[in-house]
Amino acid sequence: MIAVIQRVTNSSVKVKEEIVSSISQGLLIFLGISNEDTKEDIIWLSKKIANLRIFNDLNGVMNKSVIDINGEAIVVSQFTLLASTKKGNRPSYIKAAKPNIAIPIYKEFIIQFEIEINKSVGSGIFGADMKIELLNDGPVTIIIDTKNKN
Questions:
Q1: Is 80 an active-site residue?
Q2: Which of 9, 38, 80, 141 is an active site residue?
Q3: pTM beyond cutoff 0.85
């Protein structure tokens, strides 16, 4: 599982010009799901993201988590995070899980993340053509791969 986490001032997801999720201060999380991802990956990643200290304290130091600031979150499935660009110029998505595997993992991740931050989490619509708006705060963008926990 690969996550791209962006600290945002606000963010929204539109499908067919209709806003399906929106948040104020918090995290926009793009989530790429592979065929090898497990429940352990879901638990580890959701806990890691919920506790990332990437929000400023009163001294302007990144020392607070989304939990600490009572922030919000949106999770958007993004299979292109699993792109392989090793050969040629057309990315291969063979490492990305097919919908029958990815959708249940995506939904389970959202539920687990809601438990971690103790509030509802917004989401995109799996497989839809989405338009994502965000105001990256910082900018702060973190990439986490559950297969490379170093």
A1: yes
A2: 80
A3: yes
